[in-house]
């Protein structure tokens, strides 16, 4: 584990550091010194604007739906940490969440730290349908088998509690290609994962694999994979504020778009300035995700051992607006380019006594919407 930290940080110069609301330290390092680029001659790509998503007027009271980000209402250089440090890096740097030996020591091995979840948990739901579902893994989700170059949704933000014998709860996107040992994904969302982050807050995350979660894959910037381009936002950052049952709903906007040999990740907007970074095609060799994905999947996932935590708000899907978790305005981009196409999702709920999923089609801008969640169980 110590050797892994040396590989991550050897020769890195932190121009500036700050502490977020959870106490995590972010080091602002030269963009070329991040793990995915160190020792490489690759130049950081410039993020393009996303293709057309669509517009319209919000279908709910604008006072009741708001954008969540890092837990302060201020953004960029205006945001200050407890010590008065700007929560943004100088030009030419990126904020990278510091990984410590204490973080690694919460896991039995470096391999366990890198994995999406224990015991095979975290794989795309459609890749592990019963009877092969790991005993540690539950979900409520909706999917579509369609060739795509990424997709989009808004996700409302919750903070499900993680108790004893429970591991994590999340809301996420999966973009999936290949099968068997050649299964490949790029993923993003928010998750509450105390073992990984050391706190009980929701965090922005990315994940990938090129070989069915075998020898490849890691969260965020914890290995030499994701290339971060944003100087303001970083995978692993805590998110807030949290949605209020029966009250204000706070949401984030996420999108992946495959273009120019990269899977670009966008956060809270569709302009190039909203891009956080990308996974380069080279990670996927000659596999499916080198050119496109074959499936889009959205929803919630929980992991536990003898009991499973709440998903989303803890409310079932039929509780709807201001109560259930949602992902709305779900769509995908055709790999050949062009405007986003509304998804046509099939819901799946393998444990309806614990978690449910429901898909509704509304007028824009809600469009294809997934409601999901539940209290969990044992």
From TrEMBL:
Alphabetized PANTHER family for the sequence: NEPROSIN ACTIVATION PEPTIDE DOMAIN-CONTAINING PROTEIN (PTHR31589:SF216), PROTEIN, PUTATIVE (DUF239)-RELATED-RELATED (PTHR31589)
Domain Neprosin PEP catalytic positions: 129-378
Name of protein: Neprosin PEP catalytic domain-containing protein
InterPro entries: Glutamic_endopeptidase, Neprosin
PROSITE patterns: NEPROSIN_PEP_CD (PS52045)
One Pfam assignment: Neprosin
Species assigned in the record: Mycobacteroides immunogenum
